């Protein structure tokens, strides 16, 4: 009986030792030499595996950083948007390099149409997919550039940061956004843009990408950019460019002066996280902006008053600007402003 | 036994309401908008500017590139402007808007209805003429006809197939055309045969049009090499690949054109347009459009100028019914809902279908129970339920492997699904995405 146990232990032990020797030699022969720093870098990364850096997951990004660090001794062009400057500094310290601080980005939805400002003329029944609806037609509101509201961006987001607002049927980004860019990729109309979060998270952007002529765009949406160039002319910092009937604000040149927001006749320019405006004497306009709720008629009144106001406030500063400001609302909202003056 | 294709197919209610209404010529509208992209391929380039005077038949936009087609003015008058108008694609596209003034034709067009039988042009001249006159496939796909006649090197056309199937429910424009312009269609067929260099043509007509079969058979006796075949009623028999399978029992390989098996398919309406282009020197400026629907007062077949707004047709058929839920450009199976009645009739508009509200909505989507009905009816032998799943999960590699690009978008799966799954929507989405991936790969 004892012999059986002994033989079993010995034979198994012998097989074990033999296998161990074989495995040892195989392991030394086929050893993959890997930089231990890759693991360290991966450890430092947020493990979101979102692909926001442009690589297939955090491991791939770690490999790329170490490789580039070895070859070029810089981390230029590599950035983990989720981790931000903090994580990138940590990664750089592991590799013994320095990294430039980058402005953190956030996704911005450049459409303010939705069911309130661009009410549906037709209704769509079919697959709940923006990509599919985009291949079919302009959208329920009629704007071929506007948000379709079917939520491809919501489905693409891994961070619970973008949701469709059921009152407006337009996606809204919350502060969970890490700027991974998944929604930007998912949107078939390229409505979402990654923009710098800005100083104290203050941002100004044109919330429209409609390139049609002003009259056509306006027919479908009350808050469309009509390409009137009022903002372009008022901007003192050359931050605004006009192209294809559309204004674009360069976030790196914008000094957040908010003049463009004031002159926009259609309320297409949005300001975010600004304190409410100070009331000036005789000014009955609402302070702060609740864009989605504002009706075009009301807004037009505001514009007219604003023109009077700005004219009186800065009479001699820049005559060219003043001219533009007074001219624009008249042409855009001729009838309504006329009525208002009478009233 | 009647010929038909083997795999799949459905038989929706035919509802050919307008099959006995003779083709009616509508008066020229006051204003037409002629889109420059009415065909498959690159849009034509406009040759006129605002304020120019044009005559009927004048070339107003020139097709550029290999797959493209010329556009001619369907009316005479003054170019009001060049603008983007909403067309059947659902988007605003460039169009030439013309204010009609009189009806003055350019010289050289034979407006008479006399039948001219002698084909004087040779093969090359026929192809050139068809190209010049902007003839495209009138079945709906609007593929430029002259390209079909240019057989690539190394391939040989053996037979010309004329598609008189009209398998879409409701539509009757080809049916009426065969009844009333049969002789012209046969001469057009002869011209196409000459252009293609074949001496055999087959005309396939579904068995639900016995009058057309009889009429065409009687006429075809005088024309050598043209034979008329009755086909069993089954949707989508009018699809190119299915018709080839039904008539000559050959299968077009996956991703290849019909010329691979020696066949070229043209629509009966196209044959008529070819006749007019070659024998009468008349560009493609009008076509027959069916305006139909259960609630329409007078379901009709209209011969209208290209660019006529759909609203004019609706008016001529007794006005828009009150309970209208949807207006479809094309047939109920493959057609697309129109965004507005201002959409102009284009070369590819075979019919306008007005659906009452109660019939125009989709059912509630339920879960797939794997009943396999979609697989049974798919004429291309695909598995629509599986393709829907993989496209939903964005597994486009798998979709490609499952031959999603073979889908002809006939909608049989969607029609038959007891759970109202949105099969065709996802198939189309998958097709466009996989197509993009394949094009990128090729680059």
Any descriptors?
heterodimer; A: 343 residues; mainly alpha; 3-methyladenine DNA Glycosylase II, Chain A, domain 3; Alpha-Beta Plaits; 3 domains; two-stranded antiparallel ribbon; 14 helices; 8 strands; elongated; disordered C terminus; B: 443 residues; alpha/beta; Ubiquitin-like (UB roll); Rossmann fold; six-stranded mixed β-sheet; 13 helices
Helix-strand string of chain B: EEEEEEEEHHEHHEHEHEHEEHEEEHHHHH
Structural class of chain B: alpha/beta
Spatial strand sequence of the major β-sheet of chain B = 1-14-13-17-15-16
- How does the helix and strand content of chain A classify structurally? mainly alpha
Greatest interface (CB-CB under 8 A), with counts per chain: A-B, 16 and 19 residues
Q: What is the percentage of strand-forming residues of chain B? A: 15-25%
Number of E strands of chain A: 8
Please count the helical segments of chain B. Answer: 13
Strand arrangement across the biggest beta sheet of chain A:
1-4
Overall pLDDT of chain A: 81
CATH class of the largest domain in chain B equals Alpha Beta
Strand residues, percent of chain A: 5-15%
Taking all Cα atoms into account, the compactness measure Rg of chain A is 29 Å
SSE order of chain A in H/E notation? HHHHEHHHEEHEEHHEEHEHHH
- CATH superfamily caption of the largest domain in chain B: NADH-ubiquinone oxidoreductase 51kDa subunit
Second CATH tier, the architecture of the largest domain in chain B = 3-Layer(aba) Sandwich
How many domains make up the coordinates of chain A? 3
User: How many discrete structural domains of chain B?
Assistant: 3
Oligomeric state as shown? heterodimer
How far apart the termini of chain A lie comes to 114 Å
Mean pLDDT of chain B: 93
Please explain how this structure is put together.
- The complex is a heterodimer of chains A (343) and B (443).
- Chain A has 14 helices and 8 strands.
- With 343 residues, chain A is mainly alpha-helical.
- Chain A folds into 3 domains: 36-102, 3-methyladenine DNA Glycosylase II, Chain A, domain 3 (Orthogonal Bundle); 107-197, Alpha-Beta Plaits (2-Layer Sandwich), CATH 3.30.70.20; 198-343, no CATH class.
- In chain A, the strands form 4 sheets. Chain A has a two-stranded antiparallel sheet with strand order 1-4.
- The longest helix of chain A is centred in the N-terminal third of the chain and has 28 residues, at 2-29.
- The radius of gyration of chain A is 29 Å and the shape is elongated.
- Chain B folds into 3 domains: 26-103 and 285-359, Ubiquitin-like (UB roll), CATH 3.10.20.600; 123-279, Rossmann fold (3-Layer(aba) Sandwich); 373-442, no CATH class.
- Chain B has helices spanning 123-132, 145-149, 173-180, 182-196, 210-220, 240-248, 268-279, 310-316, 373-377, 384-392, 396-401, 412-416, 423-442, and strands spanning 23-25, 31-35, 45-46, 53-54, 59-62, 71-72, 77-86, 92-100, 159-163, 201-206, 226-231, 263-267, 286-292, 300-305, 324-329, 336-337, 351-356.
- In chain B, helix 5 (210-220) links the parallel strand 10 and strand 11 (226-231).
- The longest helix of chain B is centred in the last third of the chain and has 20 residues, at 423-442.
- The model of chain B has no long low-confidence stretch (mean pLDDT 93).
- Chains A and B meet through helix 6 of A and strand 16 and helix 13 of B.
């Amino acid at each position: 009986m004892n012999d059986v146990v002994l033989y079993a232990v010995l034979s198994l032990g012998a097989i074990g030792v033999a296998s161990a020797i074989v495995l040892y030699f195989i392991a030394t022969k086929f050893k993959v030499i890997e930089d231990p720093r890759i693991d360290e870098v991966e450890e430092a990364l947020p493990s979101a595996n979102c692909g926001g850096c442009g690589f297939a997951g955090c491991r791939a990004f770690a490999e790329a950083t170490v490789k580039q660090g070895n070859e070029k001794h810089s981390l230029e062009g590599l950035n983990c948007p989720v981790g931000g400057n903090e994580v990138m500094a940590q990664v750089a310290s592991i590799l013994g390099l320095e990294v430039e601080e980058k402005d953190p980005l956030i996704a911005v939805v450049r459409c303010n149409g939705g069911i309130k400002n661009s009410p549906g003329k037709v209704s769509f029944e079919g697959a709940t997919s923006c990509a599919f609806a985009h291949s079919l037609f302009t959208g329920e509101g009629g704007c071929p550039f506007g948000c379709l509201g079917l939520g491809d961006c919501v489905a693409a987001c891994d961070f619970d940061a973008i949701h469709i607002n059921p009152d407006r049927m337009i996606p809204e980004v919350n502060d969970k956004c890490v700027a991974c860019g998944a929604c930007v990729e998912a949107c078939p109309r390229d409505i979402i843009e990654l923009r710098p979060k800005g100083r104290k998270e203050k941002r100004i952007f044109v919330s429209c990408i409609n390139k049609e002529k002003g009259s056509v765009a306006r027919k479908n949406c009350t808050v469309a950019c009509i390409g009137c160039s009022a903002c372009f002319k008022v901007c003192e910092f050359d931050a605004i460019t006009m192209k294809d009937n559309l204004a674009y604000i360069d976030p790196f040149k914008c000094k957040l002066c908010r003049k463009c927001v004031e002159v926009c006749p259609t309320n297409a320019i949005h300001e975010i996280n600004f304190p409410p405006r100070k009331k000036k004497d005789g000014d009955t306009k609402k302070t702060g902006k609740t864009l989605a709720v504002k009706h075009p008629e009301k807004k037009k009144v505001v514009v007219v008053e604003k023109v009077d106001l700005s004219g009186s406030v800065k009479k001699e500063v820049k005559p060219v600007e003043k001219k533009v400001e007074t001219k624009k609302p008249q042409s855009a909202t001729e009838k309504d402003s006329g009525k208002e003056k009478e009233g | 036994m009647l010929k038909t294709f083997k795999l799949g197919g459905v038989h929706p209610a035919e509802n050919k309401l307008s099959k006995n209404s003779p083709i009616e010529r509508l008066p020229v509208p006051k204003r037409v908008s002629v889109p420059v992209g009415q065909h498959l391929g690159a849009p034509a380039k406009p040759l006129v500017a605002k304020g120019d005077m044009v005559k009927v038949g004048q070339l107003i936009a020139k097709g550029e590139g290999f797959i493209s087609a010329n556009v001619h003015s369907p009316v005479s008058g003054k170019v009001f402007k060049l603008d983007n108008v909403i067309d059947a694609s659902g988007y605003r596209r460039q169009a030439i808007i013309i204010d009609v003034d009189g009806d003055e034709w350019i010289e050289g067009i034979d407006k008479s209805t006399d039948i001219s039988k002698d084909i004087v042009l040779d093969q090359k001249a026929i192809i050139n003429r068809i190209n010049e006159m902007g003839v495209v496939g009138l079945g709906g796909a609007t593929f430029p006809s002259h390209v079909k006649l240019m057989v690539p090197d190394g391939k040989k056309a053996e037979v010309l197939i004329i598609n008189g199937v009209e398998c879409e429910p409701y539509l009757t424009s080809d049916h009426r055309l065969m009844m009333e312009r049969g002789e012209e269609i046969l001469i057009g067929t002869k011209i196409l045969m000459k252009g293609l260099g074949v001496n055999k043509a087959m005309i396939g007509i579904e068995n639900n049009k016995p009058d057309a079969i009889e009429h065409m058979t009687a006429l075809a006796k005088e024309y050598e090499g043209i034979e008329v075949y009755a086909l069993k009623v089954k949707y989508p028999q009018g699809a190119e690949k299915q018709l080839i399978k039904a008539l000559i029992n050959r299968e077009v390989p996956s991703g290849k054109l019909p010329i691979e098996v020696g066949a070229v398919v043209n629509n009966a309406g196209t044959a008529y347009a070819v006749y007019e282009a070659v024998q009468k020197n008349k560009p493609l400026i009008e076509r027959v459009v069916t305006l139909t629907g259960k609630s329409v007062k007078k379901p009709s077949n209209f011969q209208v100028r290209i660019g006529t707004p759909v609203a004019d047709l609706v008016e001529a058929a007794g006005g828009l019914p009150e309970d209208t839920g949807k207006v479809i450009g094309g047939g109920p199976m493959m057609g697309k809902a129109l965004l507005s009645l201002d959409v102009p009739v284009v070369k590819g508009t075979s019919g306008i279908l007005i659906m009452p509200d109660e019939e125009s909505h989709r059912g509630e989507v339920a879960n797939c129970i794997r009943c396999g009905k979609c697989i049974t009816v798919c004429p291309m032998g695909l598995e629509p339920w599986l393709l829907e799943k993989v496209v939903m999960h964005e597994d486009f590699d798998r979709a490609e492997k499952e031959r999603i690009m073979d889908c002809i978008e006939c909608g049989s799966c969607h029609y038959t699904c007891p759970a109202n799954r949105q099969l065709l929507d996802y198939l189309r989405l998958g097709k466009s995405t996989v197509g993009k991936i394949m094009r990128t790969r090729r680059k």
